[in-house]
Amino acid sequence: MTEMLRNYIDGRFVAATGAESFELISPVDESVTGVSPVSGQADIDAAVAAAARAFPEWKAATPGQRQAALLKLADALEANSEALVEAQARDTGQPKHLIASEEVATGADHLRFFAGAARMLEGKSAGEYMSGFTSYVRREPVGVIGQVTPWNYPLMMAIWKIGPALATGNTVVLKPSDTTPGSTLVLAELSKGILPDGVLNVVLGTASTGATLVAHPGLSMVSITGSVRAGIEVASAAAKQVKRAHLELGGNAPVVVFGDADIDTAADRIGDAAFFNAGQDCTAATRVLVHESAHDELVAALVKKAESARPGRPDDEEAAYGPLNNIRHFETVTGKIAALPARATIRTGGERVGETGFYFAPTIITGVRQDDPIVQEEIFAPVITVQTFADEAEAVTLANDVVYGLASSIWARDHGVVQRVSAALDFGAVWVNAHIPLVAEMPHGGFKRSGYGKDLSAYGVEDYTRIKHVMSAHD
């Protein structure tokens, strides 16, 4: 019998109080890999209480002391890379070599950035802004933070959540995705003895667990990376208690290719950014807009790129990506492909790969229009749609005409075009002749229904602080 997973609360692993549970299903072969509890109110209460008890001491720790702890945790990630990779590959089916390089190694680097950034926080200059008084500004931790992470990059997203929160003196209750809890639990285990008990807590469960967590009155702030629908629910719950919310939601990135671009290079890099992690990335290069003069050349190059990209199993070091994460998502993707209008043409792909598992072929689609669901909605799969534009103004209009505003890219040699279009694009990130270059110093976060707040960078660290004005009389 498969062992039940346990929550991590107050520095130890404990069984959930309720009897409800569900099976974890491998996206590689659809076998049962584990059983997770559905944590309820009592479990959330215990986790929040543990975080609240730990908060005064962690808040009082100096930035240097918190830095030291996070640096030790980063070292522990690297030293235990194999355990993290195995746990995550079991849940996600991602190629193990990519988990090791893109999540464990990168995640350790990001933790080190957050550790150092916490020592650089400062208020504005003090001054005598009123006769007889001196004013100064303090940045303080917010309190107990409830955080919810997605299934597409479970370890990386956990680090993006806990890193800035813990570095600035907050304590955390983290709820990972129901389908991918494994690497987060290993991360929690590694934190034992590095972080004081109660500073980091992990509760397992379904969407109902997440809803119970974000509605808890003991939280001062909630943060989620997930769908727009989930973000709306989290923001609504936070608004009812007037607590802060940090939302990193969906994306549908436009990739604007002008006629003077290096088409072969663009197709190669766009394909990498579209198919990585099976396109399950909110910044994936899924929506290509190309000048009509370069359409045929770019489509041919993208088809060639797609046909060279191959999904594979976790141990396959040549695999470009793994499966879609779960049966619900797989059925959503295949449903969107089946619902394509008759005028749309699947140039390559568009189908399941293999008879078991949730693998989907790299796909290129032309003949779509701006109002088609495949263009307007985030597909979160290794799928690229291609549309044409006649001029710069139309390119900007088409690019901005979605509800998302997370990321975008421009491919052109003309410096004037790059400057004008980058200013006009309504997205939180604009990359030029590249897509998804991302390091810890770069702010990540969007506009419109892609949410608000920043992950990474000094801006992301500041999001987990509150501003206090102190005014002292001279006598």
Task: Explain what you see.
The protein is built from 15 helices and 22 strands. The chain has 475 residues and is of the alpha/beta class. Helix 9 (263-275) crosses helix 10 (295-308). The chain is globular. The mean pLDDT is 97.
- Low-confidence parts: none
Strand proportion, as a percent range, falls in: 15-25%
Specify the structural class: alpha/beta
Strand order of the largest sheet: 14-15-16-13-12-18-19
Binned, the helix content reads 25-40%
| Amino- and carboxy-terminal Cα gap | 72 Å
**Rg result:** 23 Å
Provide a brief overview of the structure.
Helix content is 39%, strand content 21%.
Structural features:
single chain, 475 residues, alpha/beta, seven-stranded mixed beta sheet, 15 helices, 22 strands, globular
Which SSEs are present, and which pair or pack?
Elements: E1 7-9, E2 12-14, E3 21-25, E4 32-37, H1 41-60, H2 63-79, H3 81-92, H4 96-117, E5 127-130, E6 133-141, E7 144-148, H5 154-167, E8 171-175, H6 182-191, E9 200-202, H7 207-214, E10 221-225, H8 228-240, E11 244-248, E12 254-257, H9 263-275, E13 287-291, H10 295-308, H11 327-338, E14 345-348, E15 363-366, H12 373-376, E16 383-389, H13 392-400, E17 404-405, E18 407-411, H14 415-424, E19 429-432, E20 447-448, E21 451-452, H15 457-462, E22 465-473
Parallel strand pairs: 7-8, 7-10, 8-9, 10-11, 12-13, 12-18, 13-16, 15-16, 18-19
Antiparallel strand pairs: 1-2, 3-4, 5-6, 6-22, 11-21, 14-15, 17-20
